[in-house]
Design goal:
The structure is a homotetramer.
Chain A lengths: L4 E6 L15 H16 L5 E4 L2 E4 L2 E8 L8 E11 L3 E10 L2 E11 L1 E2 L7 E2 L4 H7 L5
Antiparallel strand pairs in A: 1-5, 2-3, 3-8, 4-7, 5-6, 6-7, 8-9
Chain lengths: 139, 139, 139, 139
Amino acid sequence: MGQSYHTTRRVEFRDTDAAGIAHFSVFFVYMEQAEHELLRHLGLSVMFHDDHGKISFPRVGARCDYQRAVKFEDIMDIEVSIVRLGTKSVTFEFNFSHDGQAVASGQTTTVCCRLSDTGPPQSMPIPTWIAEKLSEVVV
Amino acid sequence: MGQSYHTTRRVEFRDTDAAGIAHFSVFFVYMEQAEHELLRHLGLSVMFHDDHGKISFPRVGARCDYQRAVKFEDIMDIEVSIVRLGTKSVTFEFNFSHDGQAVASGQTTTVCCRLSDTGPPQSMPIPTWIAEKLSEVVV
Amino acid sequence: MGQSYHTTRRVEFRDTDAAGIAHFSVFFVYMEQAEHELLRHLGLSVMFHDDHGKISFPRVGARCDYQRAVKFEDIMDIEVSIVRLGTKSVTFEFNFSHDGQAVASGQTTTVCCRLSDTGPPQSMPIPTWIAEKLSEVVV
Amino acid sequence: MGQSYHTTRRVEFRDTDAAGIAHFSVFFVYMEQAEHELLRHLGLSVMFHDDHGKISFPRVGARCDYQRAVKFEDIMDIEVSIVRLGTKSVTFEFNFSHDGQAVASGQTTTVCCRLSDTGPPQSMPIPTWIAEKLSEVVV
């Protein structure tokens, strides 16, 4: 059983909209940035190479539920974990809070794929050494 | 029983990423733009005023599933409809396709709220005249 | 002597910020989209291939001056022209207006380059057939 | 004579485009974020209140020249300074570098304005206490 990863994020001015709050779509960008930060923390990356070529994890789904608005310069805590580590896919969960109050929670699902120059990505089992690192944040 | 609304969208260069495809987060921006275009088509807007003040529809949830990547300058067809018109909330559905093949499908849920300068938005029943217009695209 | 090209652009909600107006940075995205639309109109593209490989036009400079703010759903007229067509570089000019009043004016400069997989882009003279098409909008 | 301010910035995946590099428009967002970080460092903000109402600094101009491309996860050093502190306006300069090599340099100019609910912003002299803090980074 792993342990979730924590990071923070300040709402920048470009992240806001004319309603005066962080735009709902920027939470998906925050999620990706937190995921990439976690991957770096685990010694992983967004692209891998083995003897057969390139491996990456295209996103097949993303969702976010919003509980409370945040404004310019608010600093959010983001808790990141993996709620499902399948044979071929990974589901990350993100919980955003501000001043101890829930702001939003989201999930993204990615699928391990071999990339090809001549066709669409082909799903494949997650290599063992990658799965072992990811398991550190499975909760 | 209403009828879905159709619009199109070209993938702009800023919408792409270093993987060479439209970034997953831009689909949420496309969904909002298609929703706003639909509201204008119905004679509605994103903000209303009545005798008691301002009414708007903050987003409480958004999701998207991805079937196929699209690239710079690809033109997508977007089919928009309402799959649930509740007393206080609306769920829009968006089906993106390119050259007749499914690219992505998403949903956003908004809640009718009275806005206040002194506190968070308060949910309220959707005014009848707005609900009647929205019902034109309930499928 | 050529003639400028005209297009329009609606300010989308994601383009606004907490000041209630279109964010200054989105004008650079509008400029690129108007430039690409013009290139398509002229029968050109952002990437070309000849016997020696790929040719493209990386941006070396961009600027914008702002006269007036625009808001969500404002529709701007954008006038695009080329104010300098050099041997290797092109300077586009963009004049944004709304309801007949100047909103902003900007310029971008791109340089014709041969792309390489092994090093940075190398500048080269603009091929004659491309320069001829671009000259249609030199003012 | 003041001293420039330094910060860093990692190129995030959403900042890249299909050319595989940071999109030219994101440098304007980086500039604004670095400016806001500097303002916080100086004990200032983007919006002020005095006895007569709200004061802010709308942007009237922005420019950037590009020397070298940066890629996903590259970390840039950003040097921020004020190259002109006028009676009513401020010109910030930003120098971006990566691994000791120049990437881009830009400027933004803002004008001190009183905001009004009933008309456009009116320019006014920069209040002395704000000018004094800004002078710390005039070079």
